Amino acid sequence: MENKIEVRHVTKKFGEYKALDDVSLNFETGKIHGIIGRNGSGKTVLFKCICGFLKLTEGEILVDGKRIGKELETPSDLGVIIEHPGFLPGYTAYQNLDFLAGIRKKAGKEEILKVIERVGLDPASKKHVGKYSMGMRQRLGLAQAIMENPSLLILDEPMNGLDNRGVEDMRSLLLGLKEEGKTILLASHSREDISVLCDTVTELEQGRVAGA
User: Fold this and answer.
1) For 114-150, what is each residue's pLDDT tens digit?
2) Does residue 178 come out as left (phi exceeding 0), alpha (psi in the -120 to 50 range) or beta?
3) Pairing mode, if any, of strands 152-156 and 183-187?
4) Rounded distance, CA 71 to CA 54, Å?
5) Among 20, 49, 99, 103, which is least packed, fewest CB within 10 Å?
């Protein structure tokens, strides 16, 4: 199986602080890869570097064989949840996704309605997102990440704010996406999420791969 992502000797510094310190990892296509570690271990920084949101201090990251920041600014076929998904509070779920879909023109009305339903929300609801619970926002965040049918998903704590039913829904959805051949990077504080979902697990500790 080929590697979807190759992280080669990546260091990311903020001033003198090394958020990532000589990290090398490979992530195979079509699997769910778990990233665990305490707050400040470098999980979110690694995800932002893979997405092209942060410039590397040293090393290189390849997605589908192309170097991020050199051959590609950001992976072209990517869905992402990093930190709290930002939505327009005075708009409905559909209006928010329709607005975002207008940027790249990859998802139309039918795809948007289907994806809202797929994450367990009501596509016909007139409720404004500003009145959503945190769990509903997380569901909408996942809908946004998958609405353009990307081959790569990078999900930082996607279960945050979900109740038990929401966690079950999210797990079965992620396993379904894996069945469709998608590659998923998942950071979670929950050992149970990681053990249920992930084919590989990497632990980060103070910016380094634990045990490396």
Assistant:
1) 999 999 999 999 999 999 998 999 999 999 999 999 9
2) alpha
3) parallel
4) 15
5) 103
